[in-house]
Amino acid sequence: MPTTVEYIEFVCCMISNDYAVRYKKMFGEYLVYVNEKPILLVCENCVFIKQLDEIKELMQGADEGIPYKGSKPHYILDIENKELVDKVVGILERITPVPKKKVKK
């Protein structure tokens, strides 16, 4: 079941107002950008984040899943845990670079 618009909007509402948040539909699912940085992957009404050392302790005991065929395992973020979401998004926003713009030929 693909992610619903209502769910992706709920996910974005759960992220602190301190950030500019937007989402983009990609391959039938969504990528959530925080301050123009790709932070969350939302597939089938489930929020995934990359397994990085910087959040390993915070995500200890979290479920893991594969967001799409061929991807590496990701943590599944409990988007309803506002305290955890704020901490994880804060760390990921700080360490994630803004993607470089691709030059069109």
Describe the overall structure:
The chain is an alpha+beta fold and 105 residues long. It has 2 helices and 6 strands, in the order αββββββα. It has helices at 5-13, 82-95, and strands at 21-26, 29-34, 37-43, 46-50, 64-65, 74-76. A 6-stranded antiparallel sheet has the order 1-2-3-4-6-5. 24% of the residues are buried.
Write a concise keyword list for the protein shown above.
105 residues; alpha+beta; six-stranded antiparallel sheet; 28% strand
Topology:
Layout: H1 5-13, E1 21-26, E2 29-34, E3 37-43, E4 46-50, E5 64-65, E6 74-76, H2 82-95
Antiparallel strand pairs: 1-2, 2-3, 3-4, 4-6, 5-6
Roughly how much helix do the residues carry, as a percent range? 10-25%
Largest sheet, strands/sense/barrel: 6 strands, antiparallel
Distance between the termini: 36 Å
Mean pLDDT: 94
Q: Give the number of DSSP strands.
A: 6
* Count of separate DSSP helical elements: 2
| Oligomer description | single chain
Residue share in β-strands: 25-35%
Gross geometry = globular
- Which regions have little confidence, pLDDT < 50, spanning 5+ residues? none
